[in-house]
User: What shape does this take?
Amino acid sequence: MKRISMLMIVCAMFFSANIIKAQGEAAVPFLILAPDSRAGGLGESGVGLADNSAAIFWNPAGIAFLTGSEVSITHSNWLPQFNLDIFYDYATYRQYIEDISGSVTASVTYMNYGEFVRTLSNSPDPVGKFRSFDAALTLGYSTKLSNDWGLGFNFRLIHSRLADKPTEQEQGSGVATSVSFDVAAMWRPQNFELPLIGDLGNKFSFGANLSNLGPKIYYIDQAQADPIPTNFRFGFAVRPFEDEYNSLTWTLDFSKLLVDKGKTNIKDGITGEDTSTVISTTKRKDWYQAIFSAWGDQSLGEELRDIVTSTGLEYWYGNMKEGFMFALRAGLFYEDPAFGNRKFMTLGAGIRYDLYGFDFSYITTDVFKGSENHPLSNTLRFTLSMNWGTKSESTLGFPRGI
Assistant: This one.
């Protein structure tokens, strides 16, 4: 049990990221939380790989290169160091339909913040209880434009329930609903000759995903609306080594939050005996403006430092023709100290047996000085999946050997 004041603490600690610096850049930050165990073990990178149903989040265009069907579900207890009743669930489904020359996809994201005790400002006595959560339903479509290019679209319904009643004198409640959409592309060339390196055809892919494009979300009134976390992610995956039973894949992602930070002006209003402090905030731009202005609201050096980098290595042994494979993964996630300061290492593993798959990932911050007690440390994700009728049109795509 927690008091209502804990809700704001939870929201502040939720990301420990650049989302909470300055005024708080975006609402509903659960929308950019890395959802699945496989990419979670790769330093939370996946926009260039995107070869399973979790690509709905990372890059829906990657699903254009897959056939068959797949379902998966991921569970994670979040911020485990604080022993709070916070958990994260993510379920996905994809289905290739030949008649529409592409795949339809769906996912459900659910972040549970636990149960809270409501109190009044002038009394510590409880006056009620409520549960808080964020949720999103995503529907999508992906298709191939050519043998080398894939395109993906998502539409998303967002529902946020922080509190079921207003706080004392406030009107309305802490419940909000909004929508967003994603646009993504994937280039996975069948022939790609590089000098001194050789042919990387079917061993290299580049992806880009512009996600969470949509209107601001508000709980009380539109004057207090905040942008949702529009995010641009791009990167690649390359498989430098592969034989009948072994493969090694390297992923590298870059991402940037594209929201208007707004500006706060603080000055002393000294008029006669009036020495009060005057605080004014400029109106924050809408998403269709911010996707352009967010690249130039700081100096060039600060813009580059504001880009988050994540990378990972994945080793597979086995061959699905024989019905069994297992994987080992490791990755790094880096965010500049002045722009959130999330720095951690990830580890992971996976097994594929016949139609079924199991993956887990683990976050540790102990490798970075001063980050030993970071809120994300010791976070585990677990994913169960089932995949049938799948045939990847690239050896980079999973599963191999089909």
